[in-house]
Amino acid sequence: MQTEISLLPSDSDRALLVGRVFDPAIGGPSVVALHAGQVRDLTALAPTVSQLMEVDDIAALVAQSPIAAHWNLQDLLHDTLHNDRSRPRFLAPCDLQVIKACGVTFAGSMLERVIEEKAAGDVQLASSIRAEIGETIGSAVSKIRPGTEEALKVREFLVKKGLWSQYLEVGIGPDAEVFSKAPVLSAVGAGEDIGILKASHWNNPEPELVLTVNSRGQIRGATLGNDVNLRDIEGRSALLLGKAKDNNASCAIGPFIRVFDSGFTLDTARQLDISLEVHGPDGFQLSGKSSIRQISRDLADLVAQTCGPHHQYPDGFMLFTGTLFAPTDDRDRPGEGFTHKIGDVVRIASPQLGLLQNRVVYSEDAPAWTFGITQLMRNLAARGLLS
Q1: Looking at residues 106-128, what average pLDDT do you find?
Q2: What's this model's pTM, rounded to 2 decimal places?
Q3: 149-160 and 123-141 helices cross at what angle (nearest 10)?
Q4: Which of 122, 126, 212, 309 stands the most exposed, by the fewest C-beta atoms within 10 Å?
């Protein structure tokens, strides 16, 4: 049986975790830190997580913050996991940061994108294409580094074979795919419903490491994310990426940002394994893993391709870094692969980052997104938190 404490990293007593609490009595979010089993309210010192990530010594700021006696950690964890919207609960741990995502950063998932494109969103055709070209492309690209001379030679070979794809271009070419995943403040957190479109009949979760980057391009921490993918819609045309990726409740981030310190660094993040479990209302179960060690592009390179002289983010950004996981297990009929059913419970976890759990619903039926930037500013101003 799922327990509330499983939302936390296994070493939460040593971790510096940043999150947001929505308290109905306050009518808006508060920035909090979890440290040594205590909830500390940082809102008076940093009213947004975006602003907190600009502070050089976040740990020192946390030490100055008051313990929030009106929020009990175990109650928050319980009500978050059970999605009790009438009580204080944790939200997605980001606020004013732009939500960006990188795609095709692992060779394994890159092959599935090629198959989606060749099948034009047809799940049954995808099975035969996977058998026909998957092994050929896989042996050609799985061990090369993007943008190298070797990659260019492989590109020439695959073009001659008629196997070149726009997904291979960003998978092994010099430029990473970077796109906007979701609007500011639209991400759902742990315990909340996550959405797929009613029009989609072939889709899957994407368990990912999400980096927290401030306005100066500094990577300040990491968390977990689910970059829900509507494979049939994106497979029809890359120009439908927005429709496939950006929908109501289609982006989950959380449960907390783990701030980098001496015990958890960017090098630690480079070695993480992220697990995925899907538990269906029909009894179906799926499990998998995405290992950051197998990423084709370094995490720092993905950040550098997102921001710099060519693009600035004055409020910082959250960066999905891609996934190795692309489920092909048959769920219903042979050859049709995996797709979600309404009521699926998705669990994305890492011992160092905790558990991000969400239940699948249709985007059209998920709670409407109504709390945007204007509402946040009004709420903070009414609480006397904006100078």
Answers
A1: 70
A2: 0.90
A3: 140
A4: 309
Angle formed at CA 181 by CA 228 and CA 249, multiple of 5 degrees: 50
Q: Which amino acid is at 141?
A: V
Confidence of residue 3 (pLDDT cuts 50, 70, 90): very low
* Burial (0-12, 13-18, 19+ Cβ within 10 Å), 356: buried
**Averaged pLDDT for residues 224-238:** 92
Which amino acid is it at 133?
A: I
User: What pLDDT is attached to residue 70?
Assistant: 85
| Cα gap 39→51, rounded to integer Å | 19
Look at residue 109 in the predicted model and tell me its pLDDT.
64
* Predicted confidence (pLDDT) at residue 202 exceeds the cutoff of 80: yes
Cα-based angle 313, 316, 319 (whole degrees, multiple of 5): 100
Long-range contacts of 26-29 (CB under 8 A, 24+ apart): 26/379, 26/383, 27/379, 28/371, 28/375, 28/376, 28/379, 28/380, 28/383, 29/91, 29/95, 29/376, 29/379
Is residue 275 pLDDT above 50, yes or no? yes
What is the Cα–Cα distance from 288 to 276, expressed in whole angstroms?
5
List residues bridging with 41 in a β-sheet. 32
Indicate the length of the chain as a whole number: 387
Question: How far are the Cα atoms of 116, 210, 259 from residue 12, in angstroms, in the given order?
Answer: 40, 18, 12
**Alpha-carbon span 44 to 54, nearest angstrom:** 15
Q: Which two tokens stand for residue 117?
A: 């494109």
- Per-residue confidence band for 248, with pLDDT thresholds at 50, 70 and 90: very high
